[in-house]
Known about the structure:
Helices cover 34% and strands 20% of the residues.
Amino acid sequence: MSKRVAVLALHYQNEVLHPDGKIRVGVDDEAVRERVVAGAADMLALARERQWPIMHVRIAFRPDYADCPRNTPIFRKTVELGAVKEGEWGSAFLAQLQPLDSEREFVVTHQRISAFAGTPLENLLRLLDVRHLIVGGVATHSVVEHTVRDAADRGYEVTIIAQACASGSPELHDAALRSLALVAEVTDIMP
């Protein structure tokens, strides 16, 4: 595979993956949580071995939520739960999936559903001459789906690592992956 590859690691945060998180999308089932954390760890390890850039994407809002849109149920629920506040434990990356201090690893914070919306993500990818994205994240039916579709529309080739993704239910996860197979390769194995 070309050196023009980067990994997008989406929402591997305490609020989403830790048992004490307020959101825990897809990880109420401990077996699913363990699978996602292991899949994400494998994806990150292989990217580091191959020296691919990694974009660690996190969602976080001001503590007063002044930067959180209220136009969708998902964001209204985020505010209701008091989740992913900037500077708090919940918005931090899960300990096992922390970014490393490396010139090949970047942290991108966003406040919309797609990781591209209102962030420097595309500028970073263009600067690094990336054309192929390897994607994992939680939840498959929200940030993963929106980011993958957005990436495809922007001309990127995309591969989704299914074992590094989860949704609120297996049905949502599977439906999102089936739908995304129209615009991305879906696999359990890193290419």
